[in-house]
Amino acid sequence: MAKKQTKTAFQVAFGKHLEKLRTERDLSYRQLAQRCDVDFSNISKIEKGEINIQLSSVLQLAKGLNVNPKQLFEFEFDLDKE
Amino acid sequence: MAKKQTKTAFQVAFGKHLEKLRTERDLSYRQLAQRCDVDFSNISKIEKGEINIQLSSVLQLAKGLNVNPKQLFEFEFDLDKE
Questions:
Q1: Is the CB of B54 less than 8 angstroms away from the CB of A53?
Q2: Is B81 in CB contact (< 8 Å) with chain A?
Q3: Does A68 contact B at CB distance below 8 Å?
Q4: Which residues of A touch B60 (CB under 8 A)?
Q5: I want to staple B49 with a disulfide (CB 3.0 to 4.6 A). Which of A17, A21, B15, B29 is the partner?
Q6: What is the ipTM of this complex?
Q7: Domain count of chain A?
Q8: What is the pLDDT along chain B (82 residues), one digit of tens a residue?
Q9: Is A34 part of any domain?
């Protein structure tokens, strides 16, 4: 897991989408964490856009949600935002 | 940029797709690097699946290629592979 860093608009957008995917599946932070190799306290931080996660965590979250990794990026994001 | 790590099937798949997007645009490593905040020597390593990059680098590569970040993940990947 990457260390905590400054929030960025992209991290925040990713986090909001992750939260949507998780809650649509009626999973708590803890339940999602139990399905993948990401600490449950970090899931909350990722959803708030506080962590600049690595590809390995993207894959873990995809496994935990049982979605293709690309679905984690299926949100609108304006490239000019940052 | 995250430190160099062990190759994983997901990193390799991501890297191959990145190479496809870059070469489709007739961009060299150096040309892509000039368009984004990623060192040109790292672009080669990312394409080989040698770096577990962070969300910030995903965004930079998307900017350099002028694609939506989600397009960087539009490749097939079997979750059971790792």
A1: yes
A2: no
A3: yes
A4: none
A5: B15
A6: 0.89
A7: 1
A8: 555 457 899 999 999 999 999 999 999 999 999 999 899 999 999 999 999 999 999 999 999 999 999 999 999 998 887 6
A9: yes
